[in-house]
């Protein structure tokens, strides 16, 4: 009997390991982004169906208006015609946590997955028709009726197949060519708000508005960005829907599910960027090569509830390209010379206010800060941060962020790793 008991324990342990590998959750705990869920020691006594995920397949059609942020979109391009419209088709796979699981009770309406889209700009523009691959997550904002709700969804990924900026071989002026996209691969960021109508347990129809931004984070020039704004309509098919509707206690927390508390995020990141300069004749030029960026954020935050945490962050960053303008040493347009600025002109320390939306696997962090230790105009003033944290374990997460300067100027990417101290 003792040998049989040991075999049962070994079997249960193996099942637990496989489940953790499949779901990406550590064996010791499952992570929701702002707190830890204790190990379920009764896994072997519960039906396996309680651990199953609910799967979804969806298709979106998104027509949009291209905001004319550059003369290129007004017709100053090789076609001589304005670029006003773009439409995209999206195929998406998503999953929800089971209604009887801990995460399913805490976040009954959350879904997350991967998607791919094809984008077609009108008038055959010289910027290509890119394909985007992205992660996404969405949830309910408000319930309007038993079958209708107001939802949101964000997409974050990369887009491929752009026709990047180039200088014509005959040396003619480049104003008629693409001077807005400087790289073949660009980041893809999207936010949508829409009405979600549940036609029946298996089918949902969605319709709403859509905001999109394409950018390379100053890793290449030019980087004017492409910004479509429009609508979206979609159809979603849910599999296993007969068991997927939230249970009666969905969203109702037990005393041990969540307690307000402090946590601390430490992030180390790096990136490269391009930099331009103005010569003695007030003409703009691009400095050849790329410059390195290294940064660190220490971010104490208070977890108010399962969805929201906020706090302050100490932000330090070294930018190898900062304040080069004041150290111009001549040279040619193709090979300008600069003296290396002192360290204190390329290193800055700031304080930022941070707020974070917490969901399973992902957290979205936004911040507004001001440098308090700096020297030089490139590091002076306000900066803004938008970052996505993707948790790999209970404490370790990927940090993918983007920093603006002075509320309007693209600054740099923030690609790194973070660790959460609890």
Describe this structure in words.
With 422 residues, the protein is mainly β. It has 3 domains: 2-31; 52-243, Porin (Beta Barrel); 261-421, Porin (Beta Barrel). It is 6% helix and 53% strand. The strands form 5 sheets. The chain has an 8-stranded antiparallel β-barrel. An 8-stranded antiparallel β-barrel has the order 11-14-15-18-19-20-21-22. It has a two-stranded antiparallel sheet with strand order 1-2. The radius of gyration is 25 Å and the shape is flat. Mean pLDDT is 83; it is low at 1-31, 35-50 and 170-176.
Blueprint of the fold:
Blueprint: H1 2-23, E1 29-31, E2 36-38, E3 54-66, E4 85-96, H2 102-106, E5 111-121, E6 128-145, E7 148-162, E8 185-200, E9 203-215, E10 228-239, E11 261-273, E12 276-278, E13 284-286, E14 291-303, E15 308-319, E16 328-331, E17 336-338, E18 347-358, E19 362-373, E20 382-391, E21 396-405, E22 409-421
Antiparallel strand pairs: 1-2, 3-4, 3-10, 4-5, 5-6, 6-7, 7-8, 8-9, 9-10, 11-14, 11-22, 12-13, 14-15, 15-18, 16-17, 18-19, 19-20, 20-21, 21-22
Provide a compact summary of the structure.
Helix content is 6%, strand content 53%. It has helices at residues 2-23, 102-106; strands at 29-31, 36-38, 54-66, 85-96, 111-121, 128-145, 148-162, 185-200, 203-215, 228-239, 261-273, 276-278, 284-286, 291-303, 308-319, 328-331, 336-338, 347-358, 362-373, 382-391, 396-405, 409-421. The longest helix has 22 residues, at 2-23.
